[in-house]
Amino acid sequence: MFNKFCPIVKSVAFICVVLGIFLNLSDGVYASSELNRVNYAKDTIYQIVTDRFYDGDSSNNPDGDLYSETDLHKYMGGDWKGITDKIDDNYFTDLGITAIWISQPVENVYDIHPEGYTSYHGYWARDYKKNNPFYGSFNDFDALISTAHSHGIKIIMDFTPNHSSPALATDSDYVENGAIYDNGTLLGNYSNDLDLFHHNGGTDFSSYEDGIYRNLYDLADYNLQNQTIDQYLKQSIELWLDKGIDGIRVDAVKHMSQGWQESLMNHIYSYQPIFTFGEWFLGENEVDTKNHYFANESGMSLLDFQFGQQIREVLKSKEDNWVDFHAMIEDTSNSYKEVNDQVTFIDNHDMSRFYDEADAKTNTDIALAVLLTSRGVPTIYYGTEQYLTGETDPDNRKQMPGFDRTTTSYKLISKLAHLRQLNPALGYGTTTERWTNEDVYVFERKFGNNVVITAVNSSDQSYTINNLQTSLSEGTHPDVLEGLLKGDSLHVDQKGQAATFELQANEVAVWEVTEPANTPTVGHVGPMVGQAGNEITISGEAFGEEKGTVLFGSHQATIVSWDNSEIVVNVPDIQGDFYTIEIVTNDNKESNAYADFEVLTGKLIPVRFIVEEATTDYGNAIYLVGNTQELGNWDVEKAIGPFFNQIMKEYPTWYYDISVPSNYTLEYKFIKKDSSGNIVWEGGTNRSYVTPTEGTDSITSTWIN
Ligand code: NOJ
Ligand code: NOJ
Ligand code: CA
Description:
The chain is an alpha/beta fold. Helix 10 packs antiparallel against helix 11. Helix content is 21%, strand content 27%. It starts with a helix and ends with a strand. The radius of gyration is 26 Å and the shape is globular. The protein has an 8-stranded parallel β-sheet. The chain has a 5-stranded mixed β-sheet with strand order 24-31-30-26-27. One 1-deoxynojirimycin is lined by residues 262, 297, 598, 629-630, 638, 659.
């Protein structure tokens, strides 16, 4: 067993990881020799603004006005070679990092924005089939991927399918006029091809529809229903998948129709499944049911802004406390179907850095400890381990100040990121509150027999902790952090009750038990949606070395590979619906049932459904429901909508972009729903429409009374 080599998770953890790779232990850190590209539960992500991390090759730096050593709006020289160099000297491996999120790698505009900004951040694409030369050549990119993989590190790319670059309807000389190229050939720009882009002005963020069909700031907004754009973006991502990327962070998902994005995810999962998470920005205290619906139904995870904002309110602005924090943990465990797949963070390039000089470094350390032991896939924004500061863009994107491996936060991240790889309670487990008040938070993560307890006291006074109940085994458990943040061992009796102890001011302690299950236990399935034939990876414990059976409901799936902790199967050819996944081992032991895998009817394409003359009372809205999984299987609770009626079409015409199975006879009706859920059905017989085999489509109808 892997754990027998590594009985104590301490400074030896790193050596154990290396040993794990070396021996290729089947139940060790890496379940098979390949990295698992759809399961990030045991990973810790490190987010890099490529231009700001490390200049490994000054010969690719731009000349002239695009470059500066001091102006943060300009390119500063960081590149893929720089990241590769730091992987090679084990800066990441020592830190426990197993995934690196890099800036969008594609070619960006060269022109400078009138306000002096360059595209150093990578969000202003020009040609998705070319590399950004200031980050390096395609050869440099290949070297980054292969070096990362040989160190057990995955590479996640940022991706912006929402827009190209800044453009103005009134001035075709503004920056590069949003021009977009297909491997050097101009596809169009904001003034010469009106259908490639939306021409509805900039969004005022007043509604979901407004954000989708108007420009985000001055960025030329794609009309994703345009066949050329749809095909171009889907082909482009194939190029990067072929290059070996392991994950995608999708920019601005709130600003694109969910229907189009579901077809993108279906495309990716049918081509080369990899973990994909979107950015749906939420402000402080913002809770949005549409955000939850997207995370649950789109096939994509989300950056967990509820988590990020809440931890900042406890430890940064100090407007909230740990009672509020735990309420967020409870709420999100209900609102997200797969809460462990959401991507957590304490700061990023679009908000102030967590640490600022006016505050104690300990608050950053406490935030990191909670981040790294909570549910979700944790992300460290580059430089946090060096206590880098910066309030607003671009000050929050300064260059790495250095690569010191002795800071407290570097050591803390290292210990806990390694613990994530070893103890599956962190990646797969549930969360239970064990002892909480405004200043103190003690919580337990548990998966099978694996347990991790984190205890934090973020106040300046010490607390006596009585009657702490745990799932830890009897005995004395050393602090995983080895006293780095004042923690001590914990004594636990045979009932799991801890002996009374003092939790000192600003103390963090972490205790754990790693004990693999002996009954088959599924901890993760990725992705959680697929069409017949798509590859699905099931992770967990005690599946056995001999091939058994995998069931989707009562249907057997074809097994591609099987080992004790990881099984790859093909989605069976069954009716579109939600299914429970269950493992039966070769010696007939049944696993837990893993709920809610969505089988699609087939390949998805985005179709705009338009219905005219649909008059409604104020507060009522139009939805669509039909005969496939994608259209809610005639269940009005799952009807698609509410339809829009302000921008692309206006009331009493309504429209919505929906992912539907291609080459399929859909039957459906429009319905009117009021705010209490009362339904008025359309008259007449069911509508029938045969969808095209590929591309996009639009179908216009008139409401039938
Ligand atoms: C969100 C990104 O994180 C932000 O930095 C960027 O400017 C906008 N999307 C537009 O791409
Ligand atoms: C959204 C729907 O709500 C969901 O049920 C459907 O299956 C997905 N779209 C995927 O098509
Ligand atoms: Ca450079």
